[in-house]
Amino acid sequence: MSRRSKLVVYAVLLVCCVPFVFPTWWMATTSLKPVSEIFAFPPSLWPKDATLDAYRQVFELQPFGQQYLNSLYIAVVVTAGTLVVSSLAGYAFARIPFRGAGVVFVVVLAGLLVPNEVTIIPLYRMFDGLGLVNTHWPLILIPVLGAPSVLATFIMRQFFITLPRELEEAGRVDGLGRLGLFWRVALPLAKPAIGAVSIFTFLHSWNLFLEPIVFLSSKDKFTIPQALTQYVDAYGGAMWNVQLAAATLSALPVLIVFVLAQRQFVEGLAQTGLKG
Amino acid sequence: MTLLADKPAAVADTGPRRAPYWTMRRRDELAGWLMVAPQLAGIVAFVIVPLGLVVWYSLHEWNVLAGTFDFVGGANYEQLASDPRLGPALRATGIFSAGLVVLNLSLALFLAVLLNQKLRGTVVFRTLFFSPVVVTLVAWTIVWGFLLQDNGGVNAFLDLLGIDGPNWLRGSTTAMISVIVVQLFKGVGLNMVLFLAALQGVPAELYEAARIDGASAWARFRQVTLPLISPTILLTSILTIVGSLQVFAQIAVLTQGGPGTSTTVLVYYLYQQAFQFHHFGYGATLSLLLFVIVLALTVLQWRMRKRWVFHES
Questions:
Q1: One short Pfam family name for this protein (chain A) (predicted)?
Q2: Which CATH number covers residue A266?
């Protein structure tokens, strides 16, 4: 490529970056600005009098620490549970010739066709009947066992299909049964698929919004996305610096992990069997 | 001790050897069923039964506040046919989905092609374009809501260029554009990465051959790149369309469906009917409509794969 066209490509890339990077930058810097500076004109890219006041209010106005822990443990439990359910089912679909496998696979895949929003009303009624509304159970059980884990099962299956037959035969010779083959042979090799499933399951759970606002009603049970929308003043107006401080706190840990492990993130998600 | 005691007995057993019941085949049957059992039970309990209940509820008038649950037959469907708010909701959903899919796929492909050049620093740019994917959805939406206010960052920036920007979230046209744009930059990084993976799978010799034949860069893109990555285009378009039909958080945070009903998409309308107005029966009817739309679009795209997709692995 010529020097000139290289420069053009770099310039185009730089301009394209703005709407991707600027909002996150603006979120983090504005959260450090005093209220008087938030709408200053011309806008300042860096706070003149940085203050952590908004961060103090984040924790004073509602139990944000508790809500943070809620989101964190729900996402961790959902990710671990999804890995168990999807790796077992994915392995069985890929490697075990059992009667009825075809029919069961079609039934499970049907889960991909039914968005959560379609079944939210009956699911609400079901969990209400069980007395589990305003608990975290629906936010854990539905993703782990229901439609959201189907994609994970599909990805695990696509991965297990590619394992060479000889590996399992060698395992058989060593006296391993089905569970042994799964646990000692297939699963240790499935790290890339496990990584991809973990990342997208964690992100999915961390971002859930409709389900928490339908199922949860008390502030100490809220998850982060729900909590972020609660920082309003007595007139219902947004308290921007506090909202943005809380938003920054919600985004930072995942962003930091992403920057440190961006190869695994990007390649993991690119590898989810969606290449076609 | 029992093991030792058992052994002589086993040796002493001299009767005719029966074929063991637990053959490898039978063990496999059992293992297979046990391993898929949690997933199968979950799908039945949390997808299939609820889907049946949606149909059942749609035949009832169910007002939770009044405590009534009465069979009304097709009344909810009649309401659906004559609901003055349904048309605008479907229109908003259609505009959002169409706008998002077209912009998302073209931008994703454009960025992927740029990043597929042999250039230093493409990994850094890839990371930057991808980063919104990992920012909490509601956090991303909140900061855009802040930027798009009348006196917010976007208009301050336009002001520097001498342009008087509109109040983005308060005008019916600009509100829809805003919601689309916010979602576009949030999610385009994922499609870009999928396209990049596909582009890297295109054999370099094909480009060489096309170059020797004198094909221009555009012709090479049209005749080599596009056909070879068409399976990925199909999959990303299915995922993006189905995802766009589910948009909720962005609407709830940015516009609450307004101004008027200009950004009240189907899922938001369904949420309002069921969980704000407590019309669960009519909400279920709307859920069913959403399901039919998702199903129809998926089947349609799958049917069209023969025409779109150059080859299937």
A1: BPD_transp_1
A2: 1.10.3720.10
